[in-house]
Amino acid sequence: MITQNIFTMKKLTLLASAAMIVLTTSCDKKTTTTTPTTTTPTTTTSPTPPSPTPTASDLYGGLVSIKMEYNSQPAGSPIPITLNTELASAFFNITPGGTTFADAGAVSVNTYNLDKATNNSYTKMATVGQTPSSLDFGDGTSAKSAWTVGGSGSVAGFSYSHNIAFPDYSGTLPSSITKSSGASFTFNSSSLSGADSVIVFIASGSTSFSKTYAANAGTVTISASDLASLTAVSDNTALLEVCPYKYNFVTLNSKKYVFIKEQAVVKNININ
Fold first, then answer.
1. What mean pLDDT comes out for the span 11-34?
2. Backbone angles phi, psi at 157, to 5 degrees
3. Residue 186: which H helix or E strand, with range?
4. Left (φ > 0), alpha (ψ -120 to 50) or beta: where does 12 sit?
5. Are strands 122-127 and 115-116 parallel, antiparallel or unpaired?
6. Closest CA to 209 of 217, 201, 221
7. What is the rounded distance in angstroms from the CA atom of residue 54 to the CA atom of residue 268?
8. What is the mean pLDDT of residues 139-152?
């Protein structure tokens, strides 16, 4: 019952826009760093992969594959719970770099049809123990994201197999963060593989911190001043997310699209 409740909360809040991990300032394949911001998460008990805004001026859309591992120990539970989720998301801009989405007809990944929202964004989620339990993304060199876009109106149909390995972060996430001490993470070839960049996202109450680092940044430190605005919690309801991702630009039917593979390692923590 605990597992089902957590899954339900996640499903209600894991929107298509949360999966749009795309370049925020450039069409060149390079790492960008965002400025820490204070935002209003829908809830800090339901993990949502962070979502930089897609503003590349010549981008006609993005197709995203995410593998999320969510670790939590709810109040009253004697053991931690781990949920593995696969998420597919897609959007198609009416104009390049725009924010209004076009209907692209039927969209599927690995033959699983994505659900279209009223704003014409597409998403599909699969969690172990649910239906579907997998989107068949696979692992390592066997990873597969075979996209098929039926096409409609201004979006011409296409197929593309984004068959590269998912990024993999092997570091350990802390169970708590002390704001006055800051927080450190190490991103190098020993802890991170297959990524261009990695986002660290921390949410607590109605406040959050987010910053993007190069995949080879080494040891990075989030300062006490960066964390100062976070709400202190002792009931294990804050969220810590480390999300490495890799992107590829592909031109199809004379339009540029970005294909993204992302891993989201998510944990409920305390903020002191």
1. 36
2. -65, 150
3. strand 183-187
4. alpha
5. antiparallel
6. 201
7. 28
8. 95
How far is residue 155's CA from residue 107's CA, in Å, rounded to a whole number? 11
CA angle 145–171–139, rounded 5-degree value: 20
Tokens of 28: 């060149």
pLDDT of 161 over the 90 cut: yes
**Of residues 89, 151, 149, the one with CA closest to residue 119:** 89
Helix, strand or coil, per DSSP, at residue 18? helix
Coil, strand, or helix at residue 114? coil
pLDDT at 265 over 60: yes
> What letter would DSSP give residue 117?
P
% of the chain with per-residue pLDDT over 70: 78
What are the residues whose beta carbons fall under 8 Å from the beta carbon of 76, sequence distance 6 or more?
none
Cβ pair 23, 220 in contact under 8 A: no
pLDDT at 27 over 60: no
Judged by DSSP in three states, 138 sits in coil
DSSP readout, 12-78?
A: HH--GGGG----SS-SSS----PPP-----S-TTS----------TTEEEEEEEEEEEEEE--TT-S
- Across the beta sheet with 146-149, the strand order is 112-113, 107-109, 146-149, 158-161
Amino acid letter at 118?
Answer: T
Structure tokens of 245?
Answer: 């991702």
The tokens of 45 are what? 């008990």
H/E element, 176: strand 176-177
Query: Taking a C-beta distance cutoff of 8 angstroms, is the pair 78, 44 a contact?
Result: no
Strand partners, 251: 256
Q: How far is CA 115 from the centre of its chain?
A: 18
The length of the chain in residues reads 272
Cα–chain-centroid distance for residue 61?
Answer: 16
CA distances to 52, 139, 165, 260 from 249, rounded to whole Å, are 17, 22, 16, 9
According to the model, what pLDDT value does residue 101 have? Answer: 95
Token pair of 99, please?
A: 């924010």
